[in-house]
Amino acid sequence: MPVLMVLGFAVSSLGNLVTGLAWAVWAALALQVIRGLGIAGIDVGVNTHLQRVVPPQLLSRVFGNLYGAIGLAAGLSYVLGGLLLEQTDARTTFVVAGAGGVLVTGLTALGVRRSDGGGNEHPVRR
Question: Are 105 and 13 in contact (CB under 8 A)?
Answer without folding.
Answer: yes
